[in-house]
């Protein structure tokens, strides 16, 4: 008897919460972001805010740069656990429809990443402002509420991008070896060389939603849509790979 969509979603939730490394990487999204927020805001927050032309809104979400690494690790580890010790064959036996299995897996990853991402983004903003003194801004500041929501969406999209790439490569190590250096190094180098074209890279496009001022052809939501496009392409490629390859 075929499992219902609800049952498959429930089974995927059980898998994620029962695998310590996967659950730990999800918790790390919040823990890393808040820890860096407190450290940065309490030590150099006001000094940095005093610099002419400083984007205080974007600075408030500085720690999401660390949270996104944890989100990428979560997406990769949540998917790669299926490729260990024949787990994927067992999953396909329980859920013969590979498309249903893949949908449920990605919906669970994306849903959890979105919930944690939104909590993390709002908490980082509010906690950071406790240390900003005269430079404090509130959620009523133009663009602040949009940035807080957008930050959560951005983290979820990066987790899905990572999960889709892991499905293609069938390895968290391979996916992380590509994504993390790209985010931390290659994207910045390309930005220096390619100029305006770099705004279409997944991290730089998505982080436009965190800024109060924008340059170039993309705005906050169109930038996030570009990141969603990258994530969608990875998810479709992962779905096609999962359907065509043997377990």
Structure description:
With 247 residues, the chain is mainly α. It is built from ten helices and no strands. It has helices at residues 5-18, 20-49, 56-60, 64-80, 87-94, 98-129, 144-169, 172-194, 202-206, 220-244. α4 (64-80) packs antiparallel against α6, α6 packs antiparallel against α10 and α7 crosses α8 (172-194). The longest helix has 32 residues, at 98-129. The protein is globular, with a radius of gyration of 19 Å. It starts with a helix and ends with a helix. The model has no long low-confidence stretch (mean pLDDT 90).
How many strands? 0
Low-confidence stretches: none
Q: H/E order of the elements?
A: HHHHHHHHHH
Instruction: Give the helix proportion (percent range).
Output: over 70%
What is the residue-mean pLDDT, rounded to a whole number?
90
Structural class: mainly alpha
Give the termini distance in whole angstroms. Answer: 21 Å
What is the overall number of helices? 10
Largest sheet: none
Kindly provide the radius of gyration, computed on alpha-carbon positions and rounded to a whole number of angstroms: 19 Å
Strand content: under 5%
Coarse shape: globular
């Amino acid at each position: 008897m075929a499992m219902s969509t609800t049952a498959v979603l429930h089974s995927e939730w059980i898998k994620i919460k029962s695998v310590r490394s996967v659950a730990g990487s999800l918790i790390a999204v919040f823990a890393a972001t808040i820890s860096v927020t407190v450290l940065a805001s309490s030590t150099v927050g006001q000094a940095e805010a005093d610099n002419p032309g400083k984007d205080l809104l974007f600075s408030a979400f500085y720690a999401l740069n660390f949270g996104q690494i944890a989100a990428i690790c979560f997406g990769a580890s949540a998917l790669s656990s299926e490729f260990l010790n024949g787990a994927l064959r067992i999953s396909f036996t329980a859920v013969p429809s590979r498309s249903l299995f893949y949908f449920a897996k990605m919906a669970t990853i994306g849903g959890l990443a979105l919930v944690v991402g939104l909590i993390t983004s709002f908490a980082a903003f509010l906690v950071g402002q406790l240390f900003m003194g005269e430079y404090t801004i509130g959620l009523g500041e133009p663009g602040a509420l949009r940035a807080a929501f957008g930050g959560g969406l951005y983290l979820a999209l990066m987790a899905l991008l990572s999960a889709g790439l892991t499905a293609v490569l069938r390895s968290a190590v391979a996916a992380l070896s590509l994504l993390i250096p790209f985010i931390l190094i290659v994207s910045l180098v390309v930005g220096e060389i390619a100029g305006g074209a770099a705004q279409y890279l997944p991290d730089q496009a998505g982080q436009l939603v965190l800024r109060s001022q924008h340059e170039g052809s993309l705005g906050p939501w169109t930038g996030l849509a570009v990141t969603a496009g990258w994530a969608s392409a990875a998810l479709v490629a992962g779905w096609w790979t999962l359907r065509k390859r043997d377990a």
